[in-house]
Structures are given as C-alpha cells and as structure tokens.
Amino acid sequence: MKIGYFTERPYQDPRIMGVALTDLDLSNDIYDARLSADLFERYLDEKVYAEQVGFDMLMLNEHHSTPFQLGGVMNVEASILARITERAKIVLLGNVLPIWDDPLWLAETLAVIDVISRGRLVTGWVRGTGRESVAHNAQGPYNWERFQEAHDLIVKAWSTPGPFRWEGNHYHFRYVNPGMRPFQKPHPPVWIPGLMSKNTVEWCARNRIPYVMLATRLEPTRRSFEYYDEVARAQGYEAGTHHRGYLFKVHVDETEELAWEAGRRFLEGPPNIFLEGSRGLVNPVMQNLPGMVSRTELLPTREVFEALTSRGRTDIDRDITRAAAPPVLSGLPVKEPETPAERAMRDAAYDNQLETMSIITGTPETVLPKIRTVLETLRPGQIFFWDGDGAMTHDDAMRSLRLMGAEVLPAVREMAAELELHDAFEIDPATNEPVGASV
Amino acid sequence: MQGAEPIDTIIAEQREGIVAMSWQVREVPPSVDGSSCHVAGLDVHYLRKGHGPVLVHLHDSLGNWGWLPLYERLAEDFDVIVPDLPGYGESQRPEWARHPRDLAIVVLQLLDRLGIERVLLSGIGLGGWLAAEMATMRQRSIERLVLVAPAGIKPRVGEIADQMLRGPLRFGLGGFRDAESFRQLFAIDRDEVDDVPDALYTMWDFSTEMTARIVWKPWMFSLELPHLLRGVAVPATVVWGACDELFPLDCGRQYVEVLADARLEVVAGAGHWIDLEAPEAVIAALSGGSA
Predict the structure, then answer these.
(1) Per-residue pLDDT tens for B195-228?
(2) For residues A187 and A151, is the Cβ–Cβ distance under 8 A?
(3) Residue B199 forms contact with A (CB below 8 Å)
(4) Which of A35, A391, B153, B278 is the most buried (most CB within 10 A)?
C-alpha cells in the first residue's frame, strides 16, 4: 500500500472564514498576495514534512476562481515539490483536461516535472466542474470529448517519438515533437480521481486506469469499485486493489479533545462546497453548466433529472431585474455571526460526519480501528489522508503529521500487508504483473 | 439609421387582440401541420399553416416556444413555416454542428427539399442571426428580411447578455419588458405562483444545451458576418424592443449600417421577446410598411 497526504490549500483569510458564500460569487479583488505567499509557504513546508515523517505520496489538486483552493495552478506547486522533496511520489489529481486549449503544453509541463523529480510524477486528469469550465471558458458540451482527446494526445506525445501530426476533432497540431519527454517510460502513471461518475468509472476500467474516489461515502464508494470490477471482468481481466484509490479525511492529535476541536475546523474554513457543513453554497447555473452533462443522456429517474436540471429558487421580480446584472459580486460577503440555529446545524453536520467516518479524528489509538474499517470495506491499494484543511492551523497540521508518522503510518502499513492491499507500484494496473521497483 | 420612430400607438391599439389569443408552450393546435423532413442526414421538424407567400420564421436560442399568436395571425396572410432548428425541440441534433452558420445552411437545404424558391424570412435573437447568414448565402431567394433583435454582430457599446452564466431562467426572464408583462403573457397570478411554468423552463433548459454547442466564444456574434452583410441588398427591417435588456440596440444600428436597404424600428414598451410582447411590430415589418 502507498499512503499519501493531501490538503486543499484553503485561502485562510479571516475575513472569509466561516462566511456563507455562493460559489463564484466572490471578486478576486479580496485576495491579499502577502497572505497568499505565507500560506503557500506553509502548505509547501507541510508537504516536505509529510515526506520526512514517512508519507509515500504528496497529493495536489486544482480548482479555479475559488477561495477554498489556492492551487489553481497546481503544476507550479508540483514543480517546486519536484525539486525540494526527494522520495515521495507527486500525485496530481488532477489537471482539468477539457479547459486546456493547448494540451501539448500540458504534456510538456508534466514531462518537465517528471524529469526534475527524476520520475516521481503520478498524473491524474479530471473533467472539472462547471466552475473550472467557466473560469477558462471551456465549452461545456464538448467537455467529455475534449477530455478523451486531450488524454490520447498527451499519452501519444509522451510515448511516441516525434514529430507526428495530430488532427483530431478538438485539437490540431501540425508538429508534435516536444523537447522534453517524461523521465518514466513509457510515461508517468495515470490515475483518475472522481466522485463516482459512472461514465468515468467505466472509462477507467476499460483503460485499466486506477480510479481514486474523493472522500465519497463508504457504501456507495464500495459499490462503485464493484462496478469497476464488473467492467474489468467484461474486458477480460480481474481488477485488484492496485486499481483502487481512496481519499478520506483523517486528523490525528495528542488528545481526544484536541482532535475533536481540530476536526471540527474542517467545517470552519473558507466556504467550500466540497466540505460538508461549511457554508459554501452551490450556484445551480455553474453546477449545471449547459452541456456538461447532456440532457439527452440523463438516466430516466426523477431524482437524477431533478438534481441535474436544478434551477435554484425562482423569484420572478428579482430574476428579471438581475438578468442584466454582472454575475460576479464585488467586495467581501458580509460576515454575520453564526446564529444558534446555524451553529446547531453545523454541530449536527460534524456529528454526522464523525459517525459515518466521513471525518476520522482522534488519537492514534482511536483512529486506527476506523482506518482499518475503511481499508476492509473498500480494499484500496493507495490511500490519501486529507488533513490540515478548513480552518486548521499550521500547528494543527504539524501535530497531526508528526503523530501520523510516528504511530499511524507504520500501523496502517501492517494492516495493509495483512489485508494484502497491493498498490499500483507493486502490481502494474495495465498488465496485473509485478512491477520491478517499488517506492 | 432610418425609421427609429417608436410605434407605441399601434401596439396600444392592437395589444388586446393578438396578445390575448391563447396558446400553450410547445403545444401544437390541431389546425397547424407538424411535419418532418430529412435534410443533411437529420430529421428536421417544422410547424406550418396558412396560404399565400411563404414566410419562414426562425426561433431564438431558448427554442421554439410553440405556436405563438403571432404565427396564427400571420397565417391569415402567409404560408407560415416555423422550424424547430436542428438540435432544438423535435428536430434531430447535428452532433457535428459547431457554428450557427451550420444551422443556417441546413435551413436553406430544408427550403430546397420543400421546393420553396422565394421566402419572406424572419428570425429573433439567434434565429435573426441565422436569417442574416442565410441572406449572405442566398439573397435572391429572399423577398424581405425581418430581423427581430438579432444576434450576430458584436455591440460597440455594452454586451450581449450571457445565457450561459445567467442560466436559461434568468436569461429567459430577462427578455421580458418587466415582471408584469411576463405574468400577463403567461396568465400567472402574482399572489398564487411565483415561478416559471415547467414546460417553459424545460424548453429553455434543453435548448440552452444546443445553443452551447454552436455558440460559445465569441458569445452570440460573428466577426465575419458584418463584412458579408455588406453584399446583401434584400429589403430589410430590423426591429428592436426599447426595453431590451438582453441585446444592445447598437447591434441593430450596425445591421442597418451594413445592409444596403434596411431600416430600424424601435418598439416602445417591448423587451427582447417582441414576438410575444409586440407581435404587431413584427407583422408590420413583414408587410413592408412603416409601422
């Protein structure tokens, strides 16, 4: 098993901590470059420390135009880690392929990261949400087509000697011959992260690409992995633990009280629609950007249809008046104190996440049995602990990393050996054959 | 620019008559013929009624709303054809189409298949853009062009409202003169309902996806079109709602500047959906008279 460390690198500006905010409704006018510099330094330092305490992988992700994520240009952070870390895999989950008008540039960038890190890059690709397509004006209806074509082009640019010509449906290059090809041959491992999209799970299984579930609930995650296995069988191979990855929230602390307090901070950072219980609100238009999920391909169930065609609340007078108004509000949201009702809702959300193990927080002793349950239920070959997020401080993150390194990682490795959870660096997902060298 | 005289007097006189006629979103009355024709590998659906000179009307980026009172009234004098543009309503989606011009060509081929040699051509919003594209390609077949708040030209002042970021709901609602006009047209009782009828919203939502396939960047205009329009001599009227919040009037002014024989009519008291709020203005323009 390989174990990774992840945080979403929130922009922890006191002015927006815990406020209610609709996705994409914030002007970038609020960002303070000095604070951002401090935070980048902190998050990079934490990654370096994570490697020192024994993590096998450092995971980064990317979102655009949102305060819950500083890393809109994840490749830059990865480039720095490539030079300042020594051993850990740098796992990018992932680059948003459809928003790249020039995926060849992405192929070159990732190749350089792989070369500088001497072959430690694991690349992962996503379709992105409506937010990402809006931020870079990518045409929603062609999102999935562009994803697939960019993937094929990048893999070919990495693995086939140039020059060659690429005339696709969305990308056209008369001279594909990037000066840099990856350190790893034929190319860096490709993993796909996601939230259980059936299309993507199926595509990964058909292409024998490991699929990493991002903090999804245990039972549906288990079923999605089973679906992967079914597709694999139909393709004529047996999927294994090396095809499964799972990201989940784990915080470890010195006492149960400290752990409870720090765990609650997952919910108290900048508004984040991916952190249940935080006050991030979904903008229904962005969520359902036209064509991102074709109305002609919806499952014919009412709940799916309603979720995807959700129009939000209508107020005719307001909507007519605001029709011509700019979509982005300027300035800061008003920071109103949490009402008792909101506090109660947040407490309930936290309790619920503790109960369902959406958040695992405690001392090493209490955390380990829960991690074991996750491993037994999902049988992943690669896992990522999501920590240091929301309103957690550098101290919170460092205490947890230290204890993880000293007490949790060794114990989890023993569990993994006992449960025979092999990772994608031991067994090649493309062939199911043992890989020569391990991390 | 000619004829920018508001025509509110006529509207006031006639609003009661036409606007009061009943219709249902996406419903086809029994007297209207709904047919399909196989063109460019696609089944293209269209509504047709009436006798006389052929009049083809092209719908906007939110779809073909149904058999509007405007069409019923026009069918008294014309052979009215209102297609579901390819990919909208009941017409098959052209998976390959990437530009409004692609749809304009399919509509020209539809006319060929129906054996129609000359038409009066009108369109609103995106449909107006398509009509203008058709005129650049086959003006000898077009008797008269009526462009109702057409897209297609980049405004020098302001921006064309963004259907994608606003979402179909706010874009659709934003095309009405005001909330009262919307409620009146859809017989919505303010005290009982504060929502858009499901049939209307569903049509707006589905249509927006097709629009996203053919118009994305630049948003709702072509940098080539104004140059090509300079070669078009068809008599044309450009109609604009004085209360249009979606499309800047400057787009209309530019149409009139580049077309050889065009006039601009600004309709007081109408928003972007002139075909619903001031159908008389469209009828007057199609009749060729100054309203």
Answers:
(1) 788 888 889 999 999 999 999 999 999 999 999 9
(2) no
(3) no
(4) B278
